[in-house]
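Input for the complex:
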Amino acid sequence: MSKDKFDYFIKGEKNNYEVIIGLEVHAQVSSNSKLFSGSATKFGAEPNSQVSLIDSAFPGMLPVINKECINQAIRTGLGLNAKINNNSVFDRKNYFYADLPQGYQISQYKNPIVGEGKVLLDMPYGSKEIGIERLHLEQDAGKSIHDMDPSNTYVDLNRSGIALMEIVSKPDLRSPEEVNAYIKKLRTIMRYLGTCDGNMQEGSLRADVNVSVRQVGDKNFGTRCEIKNVNSIKFMQMAIEYEANRQVELLDEGKKIEQETRLFDTKKNETRSMRSKEDAHDYRYFPDPDLLPLKIEQKLIDDLKKTLPELPDNKKERFMKDYGLNSYEANVLVSEKEISNYYEEVAKLSDKKLAATWMMGDLFAMLNDKGLNISKSPITAKNFAELVQSIKSGEISGRIAKEVFELMVESGDNAKKIIESKGMKQQSDPKELEKIINEILTKNKDKVDQYKSGKEKLFGFFVGQVMKQSGGKANPQLTNDILKKLLKG
Amino acid sequence: MSIDKDKIKHISKLARISIDSKKSNSLAKDLTSIFKFIEQLNELNTDKVEPLSSILNTPLRSREDQINDGKIRNKILENSPKKNEEFFVVPKVIE
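Predicted:
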């Protein structure tokens, strides 16, 4: 690892500082109904339409846990190479807020469902392991809407009681780039597992970011600040950058950092203290008397383990081994399950390496341009494979292939049909090519003489003429070879 | 543990219960004696005893992941001191 090249340091006036980051990621569990009630979890429903008497905390209502949410937490734990705890406990985390009708959140404090695990990140300077401290199940709160009325706040409890997995990392992250890689990796793993859709726009994945700084070389951690509820990777990175610099400035001035909860203001690009949360850490946790301890049989864990899909790390390794891809290509192609499925379908029917190159180039550019997911690609995997094969076999040149690709997107036709109907086949018959080239050389005798007397730059001119004559279809390699041969003679 | 007036103030603030200062003196006294009583338990050595979070030896009841509740907005909003057709309405809370 080349230290000075990749380490993220902040230069203060006096000292150099290292940034220590830990994340508490809140991932919404993919389930039909809520953690402790039978209300729906669908995003974007009419306000307060997915609320039961339990979610709105009417007196006397009792929570009953959703089996699928337990299974999803176990699956996620297994995907994070973590220990699943056979015994865990639900606790009440007490705080007062308008969108928390119970006055407490049902969460897990001392005995979470999932214990320590790890996640591997691929950084430009090598792979880095990030420790997972724990994963626990908890209820989401409702949503406060502040901008619909000048003097009131509106509360929508649709989200109240939806199951969340809080995934707590160890303070192993050292830069905004590592945070970016970590969130993306978590998201990929959970999307493979089908345990969280990872949709950050809809709030299915958000994080509290813990930031502290320390002088380079120091072994002790500094005082940390927690930035609450950041809902995009870009904002997390901006918040970390701002917060770390703020702390460095304070330390350089000889001031102390207060441990506090802060808020990231996306408009001003700054973090500021949330005074209302002064007492926030006094949660007075205690075991929820409405819920018995959660016992998980080893058999359930083993059964779930058997049904897990191939995970991104394993798939990456297989792609490198079976398809001869490099680490970068494999990473990109396993980043989404749908992309890896598409690639495998194409690779089965065509050249594996060329397929990767063309997918990551023209196909991704087109999808990106059109704002499409690969599952909505206008070119099917089978048709794309056919195009790749036409390039591989030399039937069409790479340049022509780009045209064919465009036409495939426009018309939805397959490559063969387009190549044939437009007469785009590459001119690869040496005799035919020689004929064309001879004609050109005869027509441009003066240039041939110039070339022979040392003006070698003219070679490009001849190639251009051949391409023009053949409508761009001349096989470039063959054209070069024949031209060289004939110009020598 | 002895509970003083400041502690009473802190707890009542967290619980959103208003307690006047006259009452907080007697409350502090009461709570202190209650804690003293509970602290007798500390005489027992529990080093090798797992913390107990329930005395019932039955498994946690669970349910299938089915949607069978909700869609009762009118009922939910009915008892709210302030509301409109869709939302609970509360005093402005903003950071």
